[in-house]
TrEMBL record:
Belongs to the metallo-dependent hydrolases superfamily. ATZ/TRZ family. Its EC number is 3.5.4.43. Signal peptide: none annotated. CDD domains: ATZ_TRZ_like (cd01298). It comes from the Bacteria. This is Hydroxyatrazine ethylaminohydrolase. It is an enzyme of class 3 (hydrolase). GO terms for molecular function: hydroxydechloroatrazine ethylaminohydrolase activity. Keywords: Hydrolase. The keyword Hydrolase applies. InterPro entries: Amidohydro-rel, Metal-dep_hydrolase_composite, Metal_Hydrolase, MTA/SAH_deaminase. Residues 60-432 form the Amidohydrolase-related domain.
Length: 459
């Protein structure tokens, strides 16, 4: 793999492990999958054979974004007026949308993954975690295999969350029978995926996470067996927590969700939960003490959250926080860059009403980079420094959009927002998106194939 020399970058956000700082008017050199050097006049010396030199004048270069929660398959149910949250109660919405989910085919799961990954890459995301919990019986068990296929198409770093639902609707879940699995089925496929795809090596492009959908839609034994498998195989765990389900869990198990998960062992440095918007400060402190992380998804707060997630408290208590897009059923785009801006602005909306101050805007970029890397157990991504993976994106700031903003690259994304695709996205040392094109791919063909798959879905 040839390296790249980005010459004369206007700014590079460097982080050598002690926090990000802005390095002005420097070059960035990659070699294979990694960053080799960041500094002045790197092109003056001898470069590794095959190095591609590129003028980066005016570019702000950022670490690639790390998405920590999504449901790719939901890209096929977005922007549907009949599914508008504002017109339906949560129960009505679930009863209407889950039967649609249950009709998706294997090809739908593949093309919806292509759709989500394409949008993420265009907007600077280089590592994606997807929580794929929908396994309709007719679609088979190779849905995550097809997601890895989609990731290979783009060259995207992909962490697959193998989700699942085991509790029937007749026993209190919201899941149609067509989407149910047994605990044994779920655990067996998790084990198969780990054996087939999970790669713990540095710069790994494929990893697997054991991720039962949520406690309200699974038997207790599903979580118990998930913990046993994940700890035996040394992989991470993930689920939905703190979405208003705690009263139900209290009725069923005599405790709220955080205590329930901790009792089962589904907590710790190898575990992260999605959402957590309705948790008490006591519960957040308990998670911080155990090392359990949070994938904060700001966009759904606008549509379905009863309250704005208390990120200032999470930060004050020392929780590990990452950002996620969430699925298109509660966020109609897959733009993690936009989530940084939304997350910051939502917290500003609540300033003065919380016990803790809003973190500085640069922290919200950190949640989407080093924070996400921490949740995914990665020490080789999330920041720009020699030896780190060459995952990055660049914005050419020589545009009217950025007049008056260029003095502070660290706060730019959170405070101003980026309203267009990146000028370049690089993953593992390979440029995958540049100047409005996916390198080596025909976007028009990908679009047509995805639309054709979407047309097979009955709404």
């Amino acid at each position: 793999m040839a390296g790249h020399l980005l010459k004369n970058c206007a700014a590079v956000l460097v982080d050598e492990g002690k926090g990000a700082f802005v390095h002005r008017n420097v070059d960035l050199l990659t070699n294979g999958p990694a960053i080799q050097a960041i500094g002045e006049n790197l092109g003056a010396g001898e470069l590794p054979a095959g190095t591609i030199v590129q003028d980066a004048t005016g570019w702000f270069v950022y670490p690639g974004l790390v998405n920590t929660h999504h449901h790719f398959f939901q890209c096929f149910v977005r922007n549907r007026a009949a599914l508008d949250w504002t017109k339906l109660s949560v129960i009505e919405w679930l009863d209407r949308i889950y039967p649609i989910f249950s009709r998706l085919t294997e090809d739908c799961f593949y093309h919806s993954s292509v759709t989500a990954m394409a949008e993420m890459i265009k907007h600077g995301c280089t590592t994606a975690f997807d929580h794929q919990y929908n396994f309709p019986r007719h679609a088979g068990k190779r849905l995550i295999d097809r997601q890895f296929e989609a990731a290979d198409l783009f060259g995207m770093r992909f962490h697959a969350g193998r989700g699942g639902n085991t509790l029937p609707k007749s026993e209190g879940s919201t899941i149609p029978d067509a989407m149910l699995e047994t605990t044994d089925e779920f655990i067996a496929d998790c084990a198969r995926l780990i054996d087939t795809y999970h790669d713990k090596s540095r710069y790994s492009m494929r990893q697997v996470v054991v991720a039962p959908c949520q406690p309200v839609n699974c038997y207790r034994e599903t979580f118990v067996e998930s913990v046993a498998l994940a700890r035996d195989r040394g992989v991470l765990m993930h689920t939905h927590v703190g979405e208003g389900e705690s009263p139900v869990i209290r009725v069923r198990h005599g405790m709220r969700t955080v205590d329930y998960c901790e009792e089962l062992g589904f907590a710790g440095p190898d575990t992260f939960y999605a959402h957590c918007w309705e948790l008490s400060h006591e519960e957040l402190r308990k998670m911080a003490a155990s090392g359990t992380g949070v994938a904060h998804c700001p966009q759904p707060v606008y549509l379905v959250g009863a309250e704005v997630t208390d990120i200032p408290a999470m930060s004050a208590f020392g929780l590990r926080v990452g950002l996620g897009c969430d699925g298109a059923a509660s966020n109609d785009n897959s733009n993690l860059m936009h989530c940084i801006h939304s997350a910051y602005m939502l917290q500003c909306l609540m300033a003065g009403t919380r016990a803790h101050p809003v973190p500085p805007p640069g922290d919200f970029l950190r949640y989407a980079t080093t924070g996400g890397a921490s949740l995914l157990g990665r020490r080789d991504i999330g920041r720009l420094a020699p030896g780190m993976a060459a995952d990055l994106f660049a914005i050419d700031t020589r545009r009217m959009d950025y007049v008056g903003t260029r003095h502070d690259p660290l706060s730019l994304i959170a405070k101003v927002g980026i309203g267009m695709p990146t000028d370049m996205t690089m993953i593992n040392g390979r440029i995958v998106w540049q100047m409005g094109e996916f390198i080596g791919l025909d976007e028009a063909r990908l679009f047509a194939e995805a639309e054709a798959a979407l047309a097979t879905v009955e709404f």
